[in-house]
Request: fold
Amino acid sequence: MIGINNIPVECDVLVVGGGIGGLMAAISAADQGAKVVIAEKSNTKRSGSGSTGNDHFQCYIPEVHGEDMEPILREMNECLTGGYLDQDLTALFLKESFDRVKDWNKWGIDMRPHGTWEFNGHAMPGRPRIFLKYAGANQKSVLTNEALKRGVTIFNKLPIAEVITNTSGEVIGAIGVSIESEKPELKIFRANNVILTTGTTNRLYSPKTGGMMFNLGFCPSCAGNGRAAAYRAGAKLINLDIPNTHAGPKFFNRCGKATWIGVLKDYEGKPIGPFVTKPSKELGDITADIWHGVFGIKNKAGEPVYMDCSETSEEDIQYMLWGLTQEGDTSLLNYMDDEGIDVRKHMVEFSTYEPFLIGRGIEINDKAATNVPGLFAAGDEVGNFRADIAGAATFGWIAGKSAAERAQDIKTFEPAEKSSIVEEKKQFYSELLSREAGTANPSWKEVNIALQQIMTDYAGVEVRSEHLFKAGLKYLKDLKGKAISTMYCQNSHELMRCLEVLDLIQLGELIMLTAQDRKETRGKHNRVDYPFTNPLNNNRFITVQEVEGTAEIKWRDRH
Amino acid sequence: MPPVINKEECIGCGVCAEICPCDVLHMTGEDVPQITYPEECWHCNACVLDCAVQAIKLRVPLPAMMLYLEARE
Ligand SMILES: Cc1cc2nc3c(=O)[nH]c(=O)nc-3n(C[C@H](O)[C@H](O)[C@H](O)COP(=O)(O)OP(=O)(O)OC[C@H]3O[C@@H](n4cnc5c(N)ncnc54)[C@H](O)[C@@H]3O)c2cc1C
Ligand code: SF4
Ligand code: SF4
Reply:
């Protein structure tokens, strides 16, 4: 039987995930006087997609952009993170984003590394630039220190598996599974306010590099735990139906394509997009940001696509290499040095990466609250707003403040450890741990690969249809049954991966169910049985919520 | 597969095992961390950056090799 720590941890606000959004939520809740705990799967100093750095922070700075926010709002909707944003949340984000920039600058993340507020990259010619270029390599250690300074308790190596609710459907705590030592141990939290910030959902689709499912642009430990736990707790998920893909160097998958200052070209060296022929640090080539299908379309036409920086000035090359360092891409730079790849004379092939969930996930309001009382969410796991690092920073902050305010009204804790879900999960995890390992049963990896195959073929970005979804849902159900009844794990690490895979299957089902309902083609939701993009569905979002054990799907207008 | 630890240089401080975002490395009582799950490495470089004595390097596996050509004139 899996061990359980008998002393539940009590706190006003429990933050699940100590990435950018989680640390900002913890800092802001602590500033409001709340007792805050972060439960983090790995270690807040280096966890998540912001692990080794970022260099672009979307924001509105009136002294740079002017008093009229409208043109910046338009840019938000049309840039790479645009498309599925509630406008009230976007306006709120823009109003607060500069305050977060100033906070970070004050704490020691250099937001003005060249002396001025410098907006470069991710930009179209003749349009306002909204991505602040900053030096984010130290962001995780700085934010961790700020949280600790305010008395936040951080539990590292403590992934959260479930949110616990009471019979009225309000949040009363959470279940964590410690991976600190080889033997897993359950840790129960009593908290009336839980903020989910577990990032993107990766590992749903077959990776570009066969068998290497951790060679990804975004952090592979972000595997949908927050979204799945939120759904099971009764929260609404939104926009899961529209697939999202990122792009970058092939086959060394790393984010940060907009930090490259070059032109996307074909094999002969002919520019692919309409935006730039001579790159500069102000305007790298934005083609891949807004023409999401570029690599697939060109590849199908027999054309590999390259990032060519050979015509970039030496000054801008230096700027780009500095940017890639701040971006957290030092592994890529080291590799290129070792291999003798010189961006001044070599062009590097780029391609699309596998689909994943970012800006598709939990629905929140302007307090970063979900429909479940006491449950909040921020960052990459939110479904109706997205601004990546800046979105995580700004809505993390808002979530922390809202949760702390709510904590002032509810001061008593319910015995979350006595909820039936705790005993139920204890039994199930123990069973996974007790099954025979080796060849007799499937490992989490086997299940993950099987899931990726089904997702790629039945809910992919090339071809989608009613029949594919119906068949895919049946196959996922079969897979889920086998995983639940036969999957094994031998230690805490493997148990964590098993739980990730089960969450991924659940999200896979919800993707198929919602996408089935969108009977039109839109973006990479390529319905061959409904090839038309119906203008009546413009700015209409699909939500899904568990109601009495079934998935209730609804449409709503963007607000 | 990555990471690769130089046993001569490593001082066994355990920092890499503590901070790895993917729980790839573990201190299992020996002097040098064990690379328990090499195939779960994200190539993020955090362990390389945080090792105070530069005892870690990444070896990027061949399926993840970068593809490049001479730039055109
Ligand atoms: C190389 C790279 C460069 C990037 N550059 C930029 C850029 O320049 N500009 C930009 O806007 N964006 C950039 N991004 C994206 C940006 O890093 C993310 O949008 C941002 O980190 C999102 O913050 P978050 O808090 O939502 O998620 P994350 O920072 O990913 O944090 C999620 C956290 O949750 C933890 N976690 C997961 N599951 C659990 C669980 N069950 N229990 C507890 N904890 C859990 C994870 O370990 C992680 O710490 C980049 C990403 C990468 C990888
Ligand atoms: S490169 Fe990153 S994921 Fe790989 S072992 Fe080092 S810290 Fe872990
Ligand atoms: S951080 Fe460096 S010195 Fe410390 S245990 Fe890891 S490899 Fe050894």
Chain A has two domains: 1-54+136-244+359-559, 247-352. Chain A has 15 helices and 20 strands. Chain A touches chain B through 52 residues (CB under 8 Å). The longest strand of chain A covers residues 171-178.
